[in-house]
Amino acid sequence: xxxxxxxxxxxxxxxxxxxxxxxxxxxxxxxxxxxxxxxxxxxxxxxxxxxxxxxxxxxxxxxxxxxxxxxxxxxxxxxxxxxxxxxxxxxxxxxxxxxxxxxxxxxxxxxxxxxxxxxxxxxxxxxxxxxxxxxxxxxxxxxxxxxxxxxxxxxxxxxxxxxxxxxxxxxxxxxxxxxxxxxxxx
Length: 186
Description:
81% of the residues lie in helices and 0% in strands.
């Protein structure tokens, strides 16, 4: 005579399904934000930083030329020595030009390396996005079916006969979650 399973944890499956839906609702926007941030940084490097430092390099180079010209004029004039302020001005302008060159080199290096560094991470994000788009909704639908099946089973009347003679038997946790078609095969 078949015995009834003692189903007591449908609420746990419902809670898990609810938590899965909450996770899905939070994970999708986070993935979208991460992808957008990668694109934003790429555009920032290309459209803002590089043009800014090119312009800054040109401006600083002109200031260096002006400072060197003023120093040269001072040396050639009747004053036999150039002033310390003019020499300091030339040194300051040279440091500024060197800084701008360094920034341009860094930006060029980052533009060259950026995709190599971000592409593997973006591929992982894309895989997770596919899981969130396809697998998690399928899992939620499956959990809905499991919950419905277990609720229908729990609502079934006890088999005919003496209920005291046949105590309810609990299903193994993995047995309760298997689809009905698979249970029949084992």
